[in-house]
Design a protein that fits this description.
single chain; about 350 residues; alpha+beta; Jelly Rolls; Phage tail protein beta-alpha-beta fold; 13-stranded mixed beta sheet; 3-stranded mixed beta sheet; globular
Length: about 350
């Protein structure tokens, strides 16, 4: 049975004892049964998760998996008492159990009871993944679509993702490589826009602290409409970017492409260089671990660096705040980045713990 084999392989992968052949087998099974991929994504995000110490190993096993599901639902509460941590012998115990029928039954029972039983309502209605500041995340959706999540971002989707419209909610920045499925459109909901696709690759940036939302199409075709029930939408073509401002007066009058029909208020379309490779595009550079500035002012750059390095940046001089920079970095520390920017325009900085202060 493929479900039993998938749970066995997931257990070995999480314990880092899976062979290359077993990892390849797991990838093949998840491609063949994409509806089971969310189980791996869920367990990976929350494993190992601390729970109270238990003398009974079997009770700890079941409690551990229940705790993972509760954490994914955002329902876990801080627990008093000593903290339980995964130990090598505990992992081996799970693997041994998973190798025999009893372990297979346990994993399969948990899977069926929590997510597939009818008419039992699942404990988790939505699955959420968060990339904390200073970190990034890659996840495989149940339909086979791949999402790269940038620092300080979150994405959520319903448990019955493949049983209805493929809809996700995004806050922050993500790069999507969507699996084609003409019968089930893929829709990304953000604060300002909704993006509808059938199969394509695109980047979306919509941090709550920013006053704009951007969507950049790499390949394929997407339909973009404003959030709020508006029927007016535009089609975005490869190497085009749509920008939606939350501040109406900040949008210039004639910034959209001349040949394009009228677009909704506060929405502009920009043409990007068609010759630029994905790795060289400013909008997708972060996916390749590159920090790129292309004429943004210092506050915008500071916001980008705060998420990238998980720090707080304060600019004390209004003149310095108007500085604009063009630069590209890869694997540099925040000190190295700021020192390099100093070569272009004069400013000083002081780093204390997790805060960076910038002066004239």
């Amino acid at each position: 049975m493929h479900k039993e084999r998938i749970t066995q392989l997931i257990a070995r992968k999480l314990s880092r004892e899976a062979s290359p052949e077993e990892i390849k087998e797991l990838d093949t099974l998840l491609k063949e049964y994409p509806e089971d991929a969310y189980l791996l994504s869920l367990l990976t995000d929350y494993w190992p998760t601390p729970i109270p110490a238990m003398a009974d190993e079997d009770a700890a096993s079941e409690a551990h998996f229940r705790h993972i599901l509760d954490a994914a639902a955002g329902e876990t509460q801080e627990e008093a008492g000593p903290v339980y941590k995964s130990r090598p012998h505990y992992i081996r115990a799970i693997l041994t159990t998973a190798a025999v029928l009893a372990g297979v039954i346990f994993f399969s029972w948990l899977y069926v009871k929590q997510f597939r039983s009818q008419p039992v309502v699942p404990l988790v209605s939505r699955i959420e993944t968060i990339a904390k500041p200073g970190a990034k995340s890659r996840l495989l959706l149940p339909d086979g679509s791949v999402v790269w999540l940038n620092s300080g971002s979150r994405i959520s989707y319903p448990v019955n993702f493949t049983d209805s419209l493929r809809e996700v909610e995004l806050e922050g920045e993500a790069y999507f490589d969507v699996a084609k499925n003409s019968g089930h459109p893929f829709i990304v909901h953000t604060r300002d826009i909704n993006i509808k696709v059938l199969g394509t690759a695109f980047n979306v940036k919509c941090y709550p602290e920013d006053n704009k939302t951007e969507a950049t199409l790499i390949r394929g075709l997407v339909q973009v409409s404003k959030t709020g029930g508006s029927d007016q939408a535009i089609l975005l073509h490869p190497h085009e970017k749509v920008v939606v401002s939350s501040v109406p007066e900040s949008v210039a009058a004639n910034t959209s492409l001349p040949s394009r029909p009228a677009v909704p208020d506060n929405m502009i379309v920009k043409q990007l260089k068609k010759s630029a490779a994905d790795t060289a595009m400013v909008e997708t550079a972060w996916v390749y671990n590159k920090l790129v500035f292309d004429g943004e002012d210092f506050p915008e750059i500071a916001a980008e660096m705060e998420r990238w390095y998980n720090v707080k940046i304060v600019i004390h001089d209004p003149a310095v705040a108007r500085y604009r920079f063009h630069a590209k970095f890869e694997n540099e520390t925040i000190t190295e980045v700021l020192s390099a920017l100093q070569l272009s325009l004069p400013f000083t900085f002081k780093i204390s713990n997790n805060e960076v202060n910038i002066y004239q």
